[in-house]
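Section 5: illustrative case.
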């Protein structure tokens, strides 16, 4: 049986600019969902072995690309490379551009690629590499319902998606889910380090910390229960968990306040990067 993605994008060609970790994670997810390698053109100056063996057309020349007129172009390059890469792209009018680049506003994409394209900004995260991603989406006024549907289907092939009402909300998504996996990884590090400090062998402390995190995340996913209620369910009055939570949930310097400060810093950095990108284009 054909998947929804196969049916939706049947006969369409896709141009992936950037075959790094995120680009490759998405490509693998799309191929696993049933899209054909022959539908893909991928531009990457240093393709990995996995990319070379994927069956896609690598680094097509301008003539070949023009002949196939990609319906969808996915920009999965680092923002600092846009000045070198984007002006060289010649894309069909009204085709769809999906940007994965943090800090690059739609206005900058329009200035560099032309205003006859439909552009959608996205902010995926690294769990997309295992099909557990979370992606925020924001579309410009040029996009059609069909193009929005195609973008949603592409990103849902590697996780969940949410549509945003404003482009500025992308910066908040960056702070919460885009950068969020690093916060969780650091929590595993910190919990393991605490175990070592309390006398456990390093490998054992790491195993206990990481599996606890994995199990707790699985409960959040599988049980239709708010995280706050799950926390309350494992907290006995006067018990060991409560003793720890009194530290973590302290009013002025607990984890909640620390997370607010951390995500605010990430959001402000995302806003600053977007401003840099806009200022660069004005120059």
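Designed sequence:
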């Amino acid at each position: 049986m054909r998947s929804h993605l196969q049916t939706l994008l049947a006969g369409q060609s896709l141009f992936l600019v950037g075959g790094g970790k995120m680009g490759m994670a998405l490509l693998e997810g799309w191929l696993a969902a049933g899209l054909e390698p022959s539908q893909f053109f991928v531009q990457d100056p240093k393709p990995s072995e996995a990319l070379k063996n994927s069956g896609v057309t690598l680094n097509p020349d301008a003539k070949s690309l023009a002949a196939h007129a990609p319906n969808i172009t996915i920009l999965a390059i680092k923002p600092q490379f846009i000045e070198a890469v984007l002006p060289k792209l010649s894309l069909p009018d009204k085709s769809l551009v999906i940007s994965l680049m943090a800090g690059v506003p739609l206005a900058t994409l329009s200035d560099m690629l032309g205003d006859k394209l439909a552009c959608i900004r996205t902010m995926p995260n690294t769990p997309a590499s295992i099909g557990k991603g979370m992606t925020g989406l924001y579309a410009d006024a040029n996009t059609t319902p069909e193009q929005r549907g195609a973008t949603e289907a592409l990103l849902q092939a590697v996780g969940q998606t949410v549509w945003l009402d404003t482009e500025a909300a992308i910066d908040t998504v960056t702070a919460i889910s885009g950068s969020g996996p690093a916060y969780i990884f650091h929590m595993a590090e910190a919990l393991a380090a605490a175990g070592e400090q309390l006398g456990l062998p390093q490998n054992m402390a790491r195993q206990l910390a990481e599996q606890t995190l994995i199990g707790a995340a699985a409960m959040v996913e599988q049980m239709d229960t708010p995280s706050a209620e799950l926390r309350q369910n494992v907290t006995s009055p006067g018990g060991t968990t409560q003793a720890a939570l009194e530290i973590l949930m302290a009013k002025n310097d607990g984890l909640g306040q620390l997370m607010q400060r951390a995500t605010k810093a990430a959001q402000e950095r995302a806003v600053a990067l977007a401003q840099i990108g806009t200022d660069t284009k004005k120059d």
